[in-house]
Design brief:
With 229 residues, the chain is an all-alpha fold. Helices cover 88% and strands 0% of the residues. It is globular and about 45 Å long.
């Protein structure tokens, strides 16, 4: 069941990316929505999961500190990679690793119980449509062509399936996974707030970009809330 649901997550990632590729003329709006969605993933998905998994043992201060460290580290990586044409690959790799962890969380959750696994899978599937949009817009924002965007989209779509499959033989302590999610949350905060959102303002109306960013955050918040009911 975990593999089947991870395949569905990959399908939703593909659908989101293909949607982004077809509306290039509206890229400013897509960038704005993606910015809000990426920030939403960090604040409403990764951070709560990190606190739930590691907050009790490591403490919320360490979890939040690692999130800030992730933001700072990604900023340094992004600045260093800005001199090279492959900058977009950095964001795409980060998103693909996040998708891998999504699949891993599905597989691990099903080891707890079918009910817990189903709730986690619904949350992953709900935001994977945005993940597909995000990986395409990050690559195109950095000068990547449609072929490169499609290649990274396929990698991102396959990542949750690989994550779910690897869960069968992998033993991870909750605290370790929670701390890793905190670092990735910092990465996503940077991608959304310091990369995609300013880009959306440059591409078009600042007001429209802000509205779309708020919409992106709202969609992710609603998806996570509905999945937890």
């Amino acid at each position: 069941m975990a593999i089947v649901l991870s395949l569905l997550a990959g399908l939703f990632t593909l659908l989101g990316g293909l949607f982004a590729l077809r509306i290039e003329r509206r890229m400013a709006l897509v960038l704005g929505f993606s910015a809000g969605a990426v920030v939403g993933v960090a604040l409403f998905d990764l951070l709560p999961e990190a606190l739930a998994l590691a907050g009790g043992a490591a403490g919320p201060e360490l979890v939040l500190g690692l999130m800030g460290a992730g933001y700072a580290a990604y900023h340094l990586l992004r600045r260093g990679a800005a001199r090279h044409p492959g900058t977009g690959a950095l964001g795409a790799v980060t998103m693909s690793i996040h998708s891998f962890l999504d699949g891993l969380s599905i597989g691990v959750s099903f080891k707890v119980s079918a009910a817990v696994g189903a709730v986690v899978a619904i949350a992953v599937i709900a935001h994977d449509l945005c993940d597909g949009i995000n990986v395409v817009t990050v690559v195109k924002r950095s000068g990547g062509d449609p072929r490169s965007a499609r290649r990274w989209l396929l990698i991102d779509a396959a990542a949750p399936v690989l994550g779910a499959a690897s869960a069968a033989g992998l033993r991870l302590q909750d605290e370790t996974l929670g701390l890793a999610l905190a670092v990735f949350g910092g990465f996503f905060l940077y991608i959304g707030a310091s990369d995609l959102l300013p880009a959306s303002v440059r591409e078009g109306s600042g007001t429209a970009a802000a509205v779309m960013a708020i919409l992106g955050m709202a969609v992710l918040w609603a998806a996570v809330r509905l999945a937890s009911l």
